Amino acid sequence: MAKATAEWIVDGTPSIDTHECDLYRFEDAARSPKFIMQTSSQAFVEVYDIVHPHQYRSALRGLRTSPFHARHTELGAYFYEGGGWERPAWFESNAQLAQRLFDDGLAVPHREGWAARFWSPISVAEAHWTREHVAMYDMTPLTRYEVAGPGAAAFLQEMTTNNVDKSVGSVTYTLLLDHDGGIRSDLTVARMAPQTFQVGANSPMDFDWLSRHKPADVTLRDITGGTCCVGVWGPSARDVVAPLCPDDLSHEASSTSGRCTPTSTRSR
């Protein structure tokens, strides 16, 4: 740490990665006195424990849940915690699917004892089904910001590496850079309206970096807690999504236009 501090003073940037020491890396939920007290107490109790790398904290669970949490619970989700969110790792309701795939010859890694903790062969079957067919994933915990205002397009053009000044409905994968052109994060930028963009980010550090540099004619909001997100993945994903969207979602069309009309639909 002394070396990194000296390099910060002399060169402006340390030679080692210090993002895990960044004071802005914490979610809002992790900065409350109650959260700090209870998680610190758990760390004290476990100080001499051999903690499994996939073992998540037991204190203060259920702080943040998606709109689909009740349905996840009905389907027998095994939840892990990330950023205060309850996130399903696999669903016990897929046990029969897993057994059918295993009977058909799907190879499953053999795990026992320590290696089998906090893991289920069901997750292997779910990943295989996604690759071969289609599956839905609750992406609600992923960070989302709204960048809006007359200078929003110019601001994002300056802060990122790719061209995001495209038509409404376009989605662009790009990189967020530091002062020296180094990579701070990767972003997904969707243009929702002429002066409104939705940014898929990675951590509160991205919000801090954008906040430090945004001009007066740009507003930046964290909209994660007030929105939700569902990912539909797999070779049959278009068959599921196409009836819900007015655009041509074929590979040929999406590879040339790269856009999708913002729309809404009622679930049943």
Query: Strand order within the widest sheet?
Result: 5-6-7-4-8
The CATH architecture name of the largest domain reads 2-Layer Sandwich
Largest sheet: 5 strands, antiparallel
Mean pLDDT: 90
- The tally of helices reads 9
* Approximate shape: globular
**For the CA atoms, what is the radius of gyration?**
22 Å
Our measurement of the CA-to-CA distance between the termini, rounded to an integer number of angstroms, reads: 55 Å
Briefly note the CATH topology name of the largest domain: Gyrase A, domain 2
Helix content, binned percent: 25-40%
User: What order do the helices and strands follow?
Assistant: HHHEEHHEEHEEEHEEHH
Tell me the count of domains. Answer: 2
Q: Tell me the CATH superfamily of the largest domain.
A: Probable tRNA modification gtpase trme, domain 1
Give the class-level CATH name of the largest domain. Answer: Alpha Beta
User: Could you say which structural class the secondary elements and strand pairing correspond to?
Assistant: alpha+beta
